[in-house]
UniProtKB/TrEMBL annotation:
A GO molecular-function descriptor: 5-amino-6-(5-phosphoribosylamino)uracil reductase activity
Domain Bacterial bifunctional deaminase-reductase C-terminal: 4-177
Higher taxonomy: Bacteria, Bacillati, Actinomycetota, Actinomycetes, Geodermatophilales
Superkingdom per UniProt: Bacteria
Protein name: Dihydrofolate reductase
One of the GO biological process terms: riboflavin biosynthetic process
SUPFAM superfamilies hit by this protein: Dihydrofolate reductase-like
InterPro entries (UniProt xref): DHFR-like_dom_sf, RibDG_C
Pfam families (UniProt xref): RibD_C
Record organism: Geodermatophilus africanus
Amino acid sequence: MGAVVLFAAVSLDGYVGRDDDMPGPLFDWYGNGDVEVTFSDPNRVFTVTPQTAEFLRTTASRTAVMVCGRRLFDITDGWEGVPPNGEHVVVVTHRTADDWPHAGTAPFTFVPDVPTGIEQAQALAGDRDVTVTAGDVGGQALRAGLVDRVVLSLVPVVLGSGRPFFGGGGPPEIQFEDPVVVQGKRVTHLVYDVRR
């Protein structure tokens, strides 16, 4: 079984998006280099530095399934039915998506809670990794002991307020191993394994 990885770009003050859910400058590093990188959707091309490209390619090659919440699914319109990374998306929601144009044809599964989402994602992923989006879903997964690794793409900006990386309530005390650090341009990628 692969790892469950909580992954997101984050501001210095711990936010993954502004109060209006938009990332603002948190995603600027996806276009500040000259090396092209794509994930599941070949039409979504990013240009990053060589260091960031190597980091993203390594991470993406291990990722099979992404778990996200309904808020992100709605904001992105479910990425028009194409998973942003990996081959499948598991959406944690209490609302059906029967009216979504891609319902029944896109590789998306809808589940009622985070533990079920992680379980289904791991079953789909086999020996590859599952990523969990930061925010409420990622925070719930971390607090439940379901996360193996936390990856922060730390952006040198203070947003002042917004959507917290670990969602509401904050996690209990959790210790991590020393980080792997990859320095990009206007972003520092920090990889922390959960200490078991």
